[in-house]
């Protein structure tokens, strides 16, 4: 009996010992798992329980123009915070701080009392303001450096560069497109928490870390060319009482954009003060009917297809031609015109007949080849593709109207890039704005190069069209106002009615001029668009002079030598009396029962004929633009003869010419 009891006791002792052994092994294993295998994760969790991380604004890289002039920079500024647990007398300290930080005393006191401990008082304040707060020497009030975006050139290139928000992510322009590249790493502040999770103080020796700067972006824009474009665009819009305007300057051989101007503009340092319409980059976001500028691409396509030759003559039906139940009108009455003359005088009837010879399938294929109906893929957000309906949806009069720029829309960038095809010998380039990305040490991280998207026309066709376009700018053409002294210019005027509701506005028009210079080795492709001018609707009157001014100043800035043969020819030319010709200085016409592409308002009274005698060509152009006259300029020098005579009653449709001879 005793032996049984002793045996059972030993069994129980062994069981208890085994149980203790199991518990010991389990406890040891758990401790090893927590303290060794899972140590890092648990330490971080523990720190989160008694630390608070306050994010600081990251620094952004600099945006430069192609000469390394800064367009956007990040500057370090003081941000002010308070640790209320360390403040002895909140009402008294709030009274001292409020006037310096722009609060009312009651508002700041409520802000301080409502905080657990850490609270921002003001972010990125000016140095003088920060110094005044520091001078108070208040306990519990501290400062940390944060980055703020600043645009030193104010409105210059604002639509291209864009702007950032408070966070500070890019919201528009290059700032948005290259946000991941420009934005640096976020910095932080570290504060301690008590057992109840309340902030108590900045962690000693680990107050925080400043954000690291992002990479820098170098643009193709040239600040000086951009300034010239903006200045002359502003002059054109204001002078003509217009609603808005666009100007683009591009290198036709490379696709580099040297300037992209919009009017009205804005200051990105205070972008919140402007409406959305002002912030929009019209050069890429707004599409409009191109009007007669489209005739460039019609003629180029027809020549390339071999359906016309430059010497072919087209009967322009004395200004009125009926097709598909509609009547197409030219602004003035023409008989037979050659292809260069159709461009020079901007005959809609001639363009419609060329379009008929080319046919809808080939015209559609050619226009898509020039990049219409698709985005150009420029490195900016918000680009529109324009509208070019599929050829299967062209009906009746569509072939004719599309031939002279109606029933199709395009952006200013698309048209500038398309005319660059003619300028560079036939290649469609990819337009771009960012040249390279570099780090703070100047090391190039990424270099962008010109890209040929596709060949559109042959060099021979391009050269032929370029020579035709020169006729638009010389004497008798619709774009004489675009002439640049010392350089041969090629270009085309455009005037188009604006769509309003389901039809076309009777008064609102878009006037434009697009071209390139110098003719032989083009350095610049330039487009100027003036939206809803009130003085005149003609691109040759409203937009061409701005083209001339931008081209003249930019060529001088870039040290492009003038055409020596042109200067020599001009210098040696003898004065010649030129009889007045019936060709107009206005482009376009109309389509009865449909939309109006251009032309003028019939019978608009312009008053008495000015006396131009003795005036320079520039003075005559100024009077012409002010009165809305379509003046044909002949010769050079000073005005010696004019028609009609001074004082005669005239309208905007009368034939007006002025002859100049060199001064003795």
Report Rg.
36 Å
Q: Class by helix and strand content?
A: alpha+beta
Extended strand count: 32
What is the averaged pLDDT score?
85
Helicity level: 25-40%
Content of β-strand: 25-35%
The profile of the biggest β sheet is: 7 strands, mixed
Count of helical segments? Answer: 22
Uncertain runs with pLDDT below 50, 5 residues or more?
195-206, 574-585, 593-606
Which outline best applies?
A: elongated
Overview of the molecule:
Helices cover 34% and strands 26% of the residues. With 664 residues, the protein is an alpha+beta fold. Strands 2, 3, 4, 5, 11, 21 and 22 form a 7-stranded mixed sheet that branches. A 5-stranded antiparallel sheet has the order 13-12-26-25-24, with helices on both faces. Strands 1, 8, 9 and 10 form a 4-stranded antiparallel sheet that branches. Strand 24 and strand 25 form a beta hairpin.
What's a concise summary of this model?
Residues 569-597 are annotated as: Disordered. The chain is an alpha+beta fold and 664 residues long. The strands form 10 sheets. Strands 2, 3, 4, 5, 11, 21 and 22 form a 7-stranded mixed sheet that branches. A 5-stranded antiparallel sheet has the order 13-12-26-25-24, with helices on both faces. Strands 1, 8, 9 and 10 form a 4-stranded antiparallel sheet that branches.
Distinctive features:
seven-stranded mixed β-sheet, 664 residues, PCN-bd_Tpept, five-stranded antiparallel β-sheet, PBP_dimer, 22 helices, alpha+beta, single chain, 34% helix
């Amino acid at each position: 009996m005793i032996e049984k009891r002793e045996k059972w006791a030993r069994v129980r002792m062994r069981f208890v010992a085994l149980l203790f052994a199991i518990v010991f092994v389990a406890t040891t294993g758990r401790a090893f798992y927590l303290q060794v295998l899972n140590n890092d994760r648990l330490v971080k969790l523990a720190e989160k329980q008694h630390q608070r991380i306050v994010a600081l604004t990251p620094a952004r890289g600099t945006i430069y123009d192609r000469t390394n002039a800064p367009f956007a920079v990040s500057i370090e500024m003081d941000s002010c915070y308070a640790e209320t647990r360390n403040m002895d007398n909140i009402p008294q300290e709030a009274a001292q701080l409020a006037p310096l930080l722009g609060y009312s005393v009651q508002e700041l006191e409520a802000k301080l009392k409502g905080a657990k401990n850490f609270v921002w008082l003001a972010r990125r304040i000016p140095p003088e303001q920060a110094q005044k707060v520091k001078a108070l020497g208040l306990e519990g009030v501290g400062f940390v450096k944060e980055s703020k975006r600043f645009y030193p050139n104010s409105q210059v290139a604002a639509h291209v560069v864009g702007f950032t928000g408070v966070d500070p992510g890019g919201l528009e322009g290059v700032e948005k497109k290259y946000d991941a590249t420009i934005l640096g790493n976020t910095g932080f502040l570290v504060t301690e928490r008590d057992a109840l999770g309340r902030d108590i103080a900045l962690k000693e020796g680990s107050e925080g870390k400043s954000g690291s700067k992002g990479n820098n972006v170098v643009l193709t824009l040239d600040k000086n060319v951009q300034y010239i474009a903006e200045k002359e665009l502003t002059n054109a819009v204001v002078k003509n009482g217009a609603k808005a305007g666009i100007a683009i300057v591009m290198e036709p051989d490379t696709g580099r954009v040297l300037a992209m101007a919009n009017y009205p503009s804005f200051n990105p340092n205070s972008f919140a003060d402007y409406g959305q319409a002002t912030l929009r980059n019209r050069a890429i976001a707004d599409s409009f009917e191109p009007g007669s500028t489209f005739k460039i691409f019609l003629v180029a396509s027809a020549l390339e297809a071999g359906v016309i030759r430059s010497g072919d003559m087209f009967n322009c039906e004395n200004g009125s031609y009926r097709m598909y139940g509609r009547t197409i009108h030219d602004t003035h009455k023409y008989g037979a015109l050659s292809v260069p003359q159709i461009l020079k005088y901007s005959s809609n009837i001639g363009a419609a007949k060329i379009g008929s010879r080319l046919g809808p399938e080939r015209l559609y294929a050619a226009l898509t080849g020039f990049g219409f109906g698709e985005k150009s893929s420029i490195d900016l957000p918000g680009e529109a593709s324009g509208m070019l309906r599929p050829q299967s949806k062209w009906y009746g009069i569509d072939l004719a109207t599309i031939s002279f720029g109606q029933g199709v829309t395009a952006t200013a960038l698309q048209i500038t890039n398309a005319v660059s095809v003619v300028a560079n010998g036939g290649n469609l380039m990819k337009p771009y704005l960012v040249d390279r990305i570099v780090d703070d040490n100047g090391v190039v991280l990424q270099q962008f190069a010109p890209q040929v998207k596709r060949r559109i026309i042959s060099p021979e066709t391009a050269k032929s069209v370029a020579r035709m376009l020169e006729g638009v700018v010389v004497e008798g053409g619709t774009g004489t106002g675009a002439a640049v002294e010392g350089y041969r210019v090629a270009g085309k005027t455009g005037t188009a009615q604006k769509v309003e509701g389901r039809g076309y506005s009777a008064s609102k028009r878009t006037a434009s001029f697009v071209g390139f210079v110098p003719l032989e080795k083009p350095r610049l492709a330039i487009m100027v668009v003036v939206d809803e001018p009130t003085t005149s609707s003609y691109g040759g009157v409203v937009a061409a002079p701005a083209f001339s001014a931008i081209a003249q100043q930019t060529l001088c800035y870039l040290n492009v030598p003038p055409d020596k043969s042109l200067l020599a020819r001009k210098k040696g030319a003898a004065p010649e009396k030129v009889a007045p010709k019936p060709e107009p200085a206005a482009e376009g016409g109309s389509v009865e029962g449909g939309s109006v592409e251009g032309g003028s308002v019939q019978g608009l009274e312009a008053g008495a004929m000015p006396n131009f005698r003795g005036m320079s060509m520039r003075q005559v152009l100024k009077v012409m633009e002010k009165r809305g006259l379509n003046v044909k300029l002949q010769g050079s020098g000073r005005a010696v003869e004019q028609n009609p005579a001074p004082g005669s009653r005239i309208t905007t449709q009368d034939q007006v010419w002025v002859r100049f001879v060199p001064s003795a």
